[in-house]
Amino acid sequence: MKKYIKEAVDFLKQRGFEAPEVGVILGTGLGQIIEKVSIEAEMSYNHIPNFPTATVEFHKGKLIYGTLSGKKVILMQGRFHLYEGYSLEDVTFPVRVMHALGIKKLLVSNASGAINLAFKKGQIMLIEDHINLQGGSPLAFKGVEKMGERFVDMSAPYDVDMNQKIEEIAREQKITLHKGVYASVVGPQLETRAEYRYLKIIGADAVGMSTVPEVIVANHLELPVSALSVLTDECDPDNLKPVDIPEIIEMASKAEPYMITIFIELLKNI
User: What's the CATH number of domain 2-267, 3.20.20.70, 3.40.50.1580, 3.40.50.10580, 1.10.10.10?
Assistant: First the structure.
């Protein structure tokens, strides 16, 4: 893996991806923040050596480098998922590449369903903790100990300092911000009524199909990470309606300006 990472890093450095400070992973329907970036370089995933290729129609599949809030940033415009047929090592490969390029912080966003019915679609949840239901680990491969501690402590996977700053920003900007536990499942099918009840019983406030692998690898790399979920639907098992993907995308777009505000203000203070 080290060889593959070096090949990707060398390729990107030759094309202007120099000395980034912060990495940002953008989830479903969360691409408008690109408009705020002073772009200096961009590259489609399928041109980067050893990179997976995004196959989901609403994930663009570009790595973008530039300046946002005075910080040099790399943004993943589209991410990878287990349900696309990739391995957990594939899904998290870009995090390792961004870290090797030099990022010191990682910000993650996703779209998720609200299990906690006090949370409403169109609102945002700050992830305080997570439950890994993806059936594997991105650290479960031969030679992982050569890239960091094998037995990574996950008692506080999300950076306390950045999370506190995010809460302060939300208060100052009068943005409704929930805090909760994110459960990551494989997908791509949505959950049954019984599965939603199960997720509530085990302590999940929201459910999605991403984020946790990237956060595990960030902790493996000792890379501070914070994550925000845009809540796109309400998962009430007693009043469950068929999934409406266009509505989910619409809800993500509705909440995105709040997430952008939080990320822009956070970048000024980290």
Answer: 3.40.50.1580
DSSP lists the bridge partners of residue 214 as: none
Q: What is the pLDDT of residue 73?
A: 97
Model pTM? 0.94
Q: What is the pLDDT of residues 60-71, one digit of tens each?
A: 689 999 999 999
Instruction: Express each pLDDT in 80-131 by its tens digit.
Output: 999 999 999 999 999 999 999 999 999 999 999 999 999 999 999 999 999 9
Domain ranges in the chain?
2-267
